Amino acid sequence: MLAKRIIPCLDIKDGATVKGINFLGLKNVGDPVELGCKYALEGADELVYLDISATLEGRKTFARLVERIAENINIPFTVGGGISSVEDAGALLKAGADKVTVNSAAVRNPALIDGIAAKYGSQFVVVAIDAARADGVWQVTTHGGSRSGGRELYSWALEAERRGAGEILFTSMDHDGTKNGFACEVYARLHERLSIPVVASGGAGTREHIAEVLTGGKADAALAASIFHYNEIPIPQLKEYLAAEGIPVRL
Asked: Which CB contacts under 8 angstroms, 24+ apart, belong to 142-148?
């Protein structure tokens, strides 16, 4: 069985790592490169950097930051935020990113997935999906959960895979920020329907939550932010716990 991955997520604004709730009340929690190096040394398998202020100038600033990250970090990292064209993706891959993630722009223009996959390969394309349960159906949302995407979660995930996504990063907006655990039944259904890896995001609060989504939820990886930024669950301790529970991880 392939090792399960632990992935810290770093939100970037104006070149700094920030943390807040729904992008409000943002606090600077550290330098992105220093934090990335710290997580790499602690045993993180990958990193995700999201530019949450992706204006045109912000994107140029972010590309320079990506170059710094690539020069200093020796584990794979994914970048996203404001990517709305193949050219946007190409600039970040050229700067040194291993993968790019697309979300709202792909919902608006699904052909974006095809375009990036055709030019750079499916292994470079992560489609991030945010969804919330409404009237018993998981509805895709965009713009940080503030707008309806007009799509149903499972059909959109399957379409993303058909169009060339190499991985799905799913965040339950109902669970995000609660620290009450992941939507494990949803991850299990995604795993059963898709042939590409699924990354779980939204709800991590304890080691047990992460173990549950990697086993019962059948997720290939678990992504979290604040529990790592505030050292609530140090990565080495988390991995030791997962290994003791019989979950394959890289130690």
From this structure: 142/103, 142/104, 142/107, 142/108, 143/104, 144/22, 144/23, 145/22, 145/173, 145/176
